[in-house]
Amino acid sequence: MASLGSLPFLLEVSRGSNSVLLQNRAVCRGWPSAAAFCRASSTDVDGGACKVRFLRVGKGEILVGLSLVSGKKGLRAIGKGGSFEGEEGGDDGGINDGDNALQATADKREKLRAMRRKLLQKIVERRNLVSSLTNSEVKEEENMVSYTMSDKTSNPNLSPSSGGPAGRYKDRPVSDSFSQSNEAMISDTPSGSVNGSFLNKEMESGSSTRVEQEVADAVGLTREASLETAGSKTASQVLLESSGTYDVKDVNLEDPLGAKLDSTDVEHGVNLEEGNMEPPPLAGANVMNVIVVAAECAPWSKTGGLGDVAGALPKALARRGHRVMVVAPRYRNYAEPHDTGVRKCYKVNGQVCGCYIICSLTSRTRYMFNFIVSMLFAVQDMEVIYFQAYIDGVDFVFIDNSLFHHHENNIYGGDRLEILKRMVLFCKAAVEVPWHVPCGGVCYGDGNLVFIANDWHTALLPVYLKAYYRDNGLMKFARSVLVIHNIAHQGRGPVGDFFHIDLPDYYMDLFKLHDPIGGDHFNIFAAGLKTADRVVTVSHGYAWELKTSEGGWGLHEIINQNHWKFQGIVNGIDTKEWNPEFDVQLRSDGYTNYSLATLQTGKPQCKAALQQELGLPVRDNVPILAFIGRLDHQKGVDLIAEAIPWIVGQDVQLVMLGTGRPDLEDMLRRFESQYHDKVRGWVGFSVKMAHRITAGADILLMPSRFEPCGLNQLYAMMYGTIPVVHAVGGLRDTVIQFDPYKESGYGWTFDRAEAHKLKDALGNCLNTYWNYKESWRGLQIRGMMQDLSWDNAAQRYEEVLVAAKYQW
Ligand SMILES: Nc1ncnc2c1ncn2[C@@H]1O[C@H](COP(=O)(O)OP(=O)(O)O[C@H]2O[C@H](CO)[C@@H](O)[C@H](O)[C@H]2O)[C@@H](O)[C@H]1O
């Protein structure tokens, strides 16, 4: 029995030759006087000897070692009144570390203390720097706001840089959210970096990498173990924790030291609790490295909802404590990311040598066929350059190659083989990012790693992960999750397309799908669904629909066969980008920000500004109906067209914004010229107008034939705009029908994608708008009060990531 007094301690349970059981390690920290306990899971101790040791990192400078040997399940070590004892067959062998070990550990501890002193010194220096900058920051923020208000540049996303403390962005355009994030970084970060988010990260990591290693050394862990122990914490978190300022309340949360030190550092007089401490990760012990791979990512590239999700979900995952990266193609020269200097070559558009050999071994004819294919489509070594930026807690990595250039307005454009070539290169380059691209000085590595691929464009990633790496004993701990945003697009082609994706012959079956009409074809989504460790879709309603022959678009059987790994999670929204209170698009041209408290004045002002901007009669008492979206069959814009004679017969105004099918674009233009006093059809992609219409309109129409989730109805509700939707997919999940008796619900729904159904629902909606003002206000308030943020969804995603991680 060893007395510990009342000092902080770390209890570490290990088994066999591993000094640390990374996945099943049980750690206990706290004060021995409390009844702290550590329970090792049965897999830790069943049938094997366990060693338990205490590491003390406190002022008393006492180290106590103690061994427990147990062949039984449920080993427990219980601390009571400053002493520890083994239970259930545990044998408290007493202190068994020799003097030498004690001396070595004492040395390490001394090293740690020196590091901590150095670190605290840095914190003091940086804090002083921050306070000296505070005044100038405030001024510069004001400047930036006024600059943005007068901004009349054509790109709605860009406003001139404040040229403020984020000196990195000085003298060049930077999106408003980036300016904000840089400012937030400057004020939030305990170290008070003045160099903008990316430099801040670099600064943190530059020193933290060293410190991490030293900390790991000091407690006898390998570097990998240390990184994995710290889970996916950012370098700054590791730093803070190693400096003892991390107030750990969750017993599952692990850090290399595990010691809670006094928050007031006597030597330097720094009260760390007053600083901007990062709270413990919400993900607890589940923190991991997450890489979201998508063909588009807002605000850099966006054709629709996928861009929004790729821009927002990662931030929510990062807020939970995960180390998160987004990988997207670099379609043009973006302002924020910098060249990492990393260059790699990947083969595209043909067979790899290994594949030729396999083919030649199996069949002479196949060899000949491959040979001809390779003659027709020469194998090319394409060099990619990796760019990187760190914004809002997320690493954004952009893959550069001339194949991607100038495609930001035409991401899925070009002929089938061109798109395929882009996606092959993108997926090949993305899957190796965790090996090659240092983010904040440290690569993600492939342990504790989950990729999140999105739609067919990146559905090759799970396949490459398996075929190139896991089948060959590499990336053994990396997993993949595939998210279905829209099953209608699948990456289909003739079977011969298989020879462009560089996979061994025996992978062909994954891609081959029989179409009742077209016969056998090549299908990328099918292969991704079969290969991914988990599959998610973006609402519960759509998850159900995908399993039906009507909703699965030919993939329902595969989805049903993989039911066990399939799940619906309703999208969230970026409540910073899409929030009437902070929306930067509402700060000029007569628009105004508003909240629930100022809804009664703010929204009418936005409405008047919208009418003014679009040249519609400025009238407060006329409801504005809006449609925003891609002009295609999915979105049901033709149902609005069918209902237009009835619509224009009402005292309403109609505003439609969209791009897509040329015939539907023409239709918008025609409506505008035909009903010029009531209808506006804006053909084009304008983020600014999407925000302004959402704020100024009273009613949003979403007659989608199918809608996996739908984001516009969520944005509408946040802005007090009432949705009228076809109850399908995610629209059914998110828009609850208004009940006038209970005064509940968020809008109107109709059950079939037919024009008369739309008219019925819209008629009821307009009746309420004109005659039941209180009910209308109730609808607005309920909609605005919902928590539609990504935080809930991120938690659900985390469950999926964990399930994937532990799947073998
Ligand atoms: N002309 C235009 N100008 C400016 N902005 C425009 C625009 N047209 C569309 N947008 C914007 O693009 C986004 C569209 O999001 P949606 O979720 O409605 O659609 P999408 O069908 O692309 O996404 C797919 O993926 C998402 C994400 O999972 C699912 O919600 C959805 O159901 C599924 O079809 C919104 O941010 C909208 O404002």
From TrEMBL:
- InterPro entries reported in the protein's UniProt record: GS/SS, Starch_synth_cat_dom
Name by which UniProt lists this protein: starch synthase
Keyword annotations for this protein?
Answer: Amyloplast, Chloroplast, Glycosyltransferase, Plastid, Starch biosynthesis, Transferase, Transit peptide
Can you tell which superkingdom this protein's organism belongs to? Eukaryota
Family, according to the entry, reads as follows: Belongs to the glycosyltransferase 1 family. Bacterial/plant glycogen synthase subfamily.
| Gene Ontology biological-process entries | amylopectin biosynthetic process; starch biosynthetic process
- Pfam families in alphabetical order: Glyco_trans_1_4, Glyco_transf_5
The places in or outside the cell where this protein is found are:
Plastid, Amyloplast; Plastid, Chloroplast
Keyword Transcription assigned to the entry: answer is no
Gene name per UniProt? LOC103716393
Query: Where would you say this protein principally sits, based on its record?
Result: plastid
List the catalysed reactions.
[(1->4)-alpha-D-glucosyl](n) + ADP-alpha-D-glucose = [(1->4)-alpha-D-glucosyl](n+1) + ADP + H(+)
**Gene3D superfamilies, per this entry?**
Glycogen Phosphorylase B
Q: Where is the composition biased (Polar residues)?
A: 176-198
Q: What is its EC number?
A: 2.4.1.21
Q: Where is the composition biased (Low complexity)?
A: 154-163
Question: Which CDD domains does this chain map to?
Answer: GT5_Glycogen_synthase_DULL1-like
Pathway info: Glycan biosynthesis; starch biosynthesis
NCBIfam families xref list:
glgA
> What molecular function terms (GO) are annotated for this protein?
alpha-1,4-glucan glucosyltransferase (ADP-glucose donor) activity; alpha-1,4-glucan glucosyltransferase (UDP-glucose donor) activity
Q: What is the lineage of its organism?
A: Eukaryota, Viridiplantae, Streptophyta, Embryophyta, Tracheophyta
Kindly list the GO CC terms recorded for this protein: amyloplast; chloroplast
Q: What class of enzyme is it?
A: transferase
Where are the annotated segments for Disordered? 134-215
All copies of domain Starch synthase catalytic, residue ranges: 289-560
